[in-house]
Amino acid sequence: MTNWIDIGPLTAVAPRGGRVLKTAFGCVAVFRTADDQVFALDNACPHKAGPLAEGIVHGHNVTCPLHNWVISLETGEAQGADEGAVNTYPARVEGGRILLDAACLVRRAA
Amino acid sequence: MAQNLVIIGAGMASGRALEHLLEADRDAFNVTLFNAEPRGNYNRIMLSPVLSGEKAFDEIVTHTADWYEENGVTCRFGEKVAQIDRATKTVTSEAGDIVPYDKLLLATGSNPFMIPLPGHDLDGVIAYRDLEDTNRMIALADKPGAKAVVIGGGLLGLEAAAGLKLRGVDVTVVHLMGHLMERQLDEAAGYLLRKALVEKGITVKCSANSKEIMGEDGHVTGLRLDDGTELPCDLLVMAVGIRPNVALAQGAQLAVGKGIHVDDQMITSDPNILAVGECVEHNGALFGLVAPLYEQAKVVAQTLQGEQAAFIQKEVSTKLKVTGCDLFSAGDFADGPDREDIVFRDPARGVYKRLVLEENRIKGAVMYGDTADSNWFFGLIKDGTDVAEMRETLIFGPAYQGGTPLDPMAAVAALPDDAEICGCNGITKGTIVKAIQDGATDLAAVRTVTKASGSCGTCTGLVEQVLGVTLGDDFVIPTEQPMCGCTDLTHEDVRRLIKSQELKSMPAVWQELGWKTTCGCHICRPALNFYLLADWPLEYKDDPQSRFINERKHANIQKDGTFSVVPRMWGGITNPGELRAIADAAEKYNVPTVKVTGGQRIDLLGVKSEDLPSIWADLNKAGLVSGHAYAKGLRTVKTCVGTDHCRFGTQDSTGLGIKLEKALWGSWTPHKVKLAVSGCPRNCAEATCKDVGVICVDSGYQVGVGGAAGMDVKETERLADVATEQEAIDVTVAFVQLYREHAKYLDRPYKWIAKVGLDWVKERVVDDLENRQALIDRFALSQSIYQKDPWAEHAQEKAESFQPLANLTLEAAE
Q: CA-based angle B475:B478:B479, to the nearest 5?
């Protein structure tokens, strides 16, 4: 079962940018890529929990601001030689709004 | 004895034929040249740049009055020929003059086709054919709010429309067919072209059938389409095609079809009359593009000289001369049962390439957005090369053939000969290639002969690549590290190309320099952002998304994701009011750590992202601004107290430090820049290990540069000894600007100086006063954009972006 919730307008996130979403289960990083797709991942790099939302977005990747790990926005997996992954959450854009599947958030916590 | 040669028409074809004739034997003919236009030969295909204002008419004149005189050509410009009498071998001008000929060359060209719509004879309805038409369009632009309609979305019509638009005219293109340039382009390329023109502000109507030209008092006022749409205009340009001008030939009863019939030697049905150019019909074909016309001119000249020559029709290709619309088409690309397509699309870059194959040979090619390989494909079409072997990688161009890995020199190979490689000495690629061909086969030799890369040296990589491209396997390029995985070019190459190709945006760099990724990566983007803003301060817009978080949020990120805040303390001087404000802020925002930094200021560590705008606003109220402690930019100017208090001080070191900091703050640099000013050689401000360190002495100021006290420890080297405080400031500012313009991103000054040499820096900053001033002026221009307190700006305008996008903790708790 899905539970799409509206978390804000697409314009609130800059293209090739990220913002933080606070949830009861921790912070989620919400990204908008140059092609206007949105992605949601745990806001903590698998390396040393760096805030991914503050990283540089390139293609469908984000580079962690602390030690330059590159994380795939699609899979949450670290790229290149680094190993590790963060949780990803279904997100999409509809009518200019960013929607997130809250059911996934809760399931993850449970 | 010289024969009489009469030429009718002074266009590009006869002009070229005349050149060949005179080159072979100046005295073989007495030449009389008639031209209906009141001028000699000019490069008609360059009328479009004249229309758009990119060129002046004088620049496109190929034969001047002097040229005709020197070559003994009798010019009868502005005179039309009324008739040809083949029996008496004479031509008669409209004024009644009779001129005899032994040989007659018809070069009457073509007439623009005017659709016989109602109203086509109104004033303001013109073709696009000659200088008069061009001047009519240029004159229109003087009228405020002028509107024009162009009928015809082919090559000529679109060049007219783009030129008019550049002149500020409101333009609508009306095209009968479903997509633009349908004879040269397929639908997909036509779409991209249309999109590009619409982005330029041109209105494009396809599948639009014109019905009637509307007028008032004999002047055009608009165009009505058959669906009833009315398009008001002050000028209507018809550019729907050309028809060979055969009236004279017909009158003389020469064999004429669509054009004047000629054989392979360009001789008409009368052995003493030849024809060349757009007026001829050869084996059923007509000609409108310049390449075959020049070929004909060569043949006609040889025939006149009694030599054997034959004109053979070849494939032609088309390029559109509209700035920013890169398109190429050649051959035949209609669909067919035996034909196969290879298609490459890159929608984000607006690139489309299509090859049409038949029996393993390329029959046609259409390219939009990236035409770098067009000449190679055109060669394959002309030669009928069997492409079966390279079919899998064919579409990617010559660099990808034969199983060899990607050619890193493709970007340099694709540069035109007039592209500037060495900016210091103004040396173009063509000059370097010529030097290499003349025997300069290594870098040192090229440097000696041309001076290229002999000054600042940042173009060395490019020169080596030109060597590689020119010499092929005979030259092994020393390996330099590329910028990142997105490109094979080095930082130095990219900087040079940004300047020489005038790349003023990040997409322009990615597109023109062939980036392998869609939008760069965390390594190249911050570097490109700096290079672009440093080279084009007015044109380029800073891209926060290409900056590391510290520069995006104007604070230093800490390991737990909190930030540190460092207000500027000019020259290390503060006062009780500022200290009170800092103390209040530290308490109000529960700052866990307050620390004195090595740069003589105070660091508030552990501030939450969402508190940044408000702590900045509080500090701003006390007059404190950002210290840029996070920036690749000016950090601090450390000072001692100098003559103010110290018994050893020789100059006002604190005052100079403050002045330097006020001059330099806010500027972005390749890496961080730290300064210090010491009041005497005891050097309490530790100026000898700074990027720029000034030591005050009795006689003035010793300015040292290139010190380091980080991963490397290095003492400064003396740049200059100057007598006045102002000179010390000037030399410092000029040095920083030179560093900004030339250094590789993330090279501190000491690393950059090691590459270019201190002497090179001295020449520009110390010795050449004019250049010093130019550097200072360019720095000032950049500061006019970038010297502003980012804290104030962010606290006012971007505060919201520091907050979470949303807070779901309450809802989730339900």
A: 130
Cα separation of A67 and B69, whole Å?
75
Which residues, other chains included, contact B558 with Cβ-Cβ below 8 Å and sequence gap of 6+? B564, B605, B606
Q: Give the orientation angle of helix B612-621 with respect to helix B790-797, to 10 degrees.
A: 120
Q: Which amino acid is at B684?
A: C
* Cβ burial, residue B712 (10 Å; 0-12/13-18/19+): exposed
ipTM for this prediction: 0.88
- Asked if pLDDT for residue B514 goes beyond 90, the answer is no
Sheet holding A4-9, edge to edge: A4-9, A97-101, A91-94
Cβ under 8 Å to B: A residues 12-31? 12-17, 19-25, 27, 30
Q: Running along chain A, 110 residues long, what does each successive block of 10 average in pLDDT?
A: 87 93 90 92 93 94 92 92 90 92 68
* Pair B627, B601: CB distance under 8 Å: yes
Pick from A22, A64, A70, A104 the residue to mutate for testing the B interface (most B CBs within 10 Å). A22
Interchain CB contact of B24 with A (< 8 Å):
no
Measured CA distances, B306 to B102, B299, B300, B302, B491 (Å): 13, 11, 10, 6, 59
The residues, ordered by sequence, that sit 6+ positions from B472 with a Cβ below 8 Å of its Cβ are none
**pLDDT per residue as tens digits for the range B661-677:** 999 999 999 999 999 99
Tell me how far apart the alpha carbons of residues B278 and B294 are, in angstroms, rounded to a whole number.
11
- Nearest-angstrom CA–CA distance, B636 and B544: 23
pLDDT in tens, B34-44: 999 888 898 88
Looking at the complex, does the CB of residue B479 fall below 8 Å from at least one CB of chain A?
no
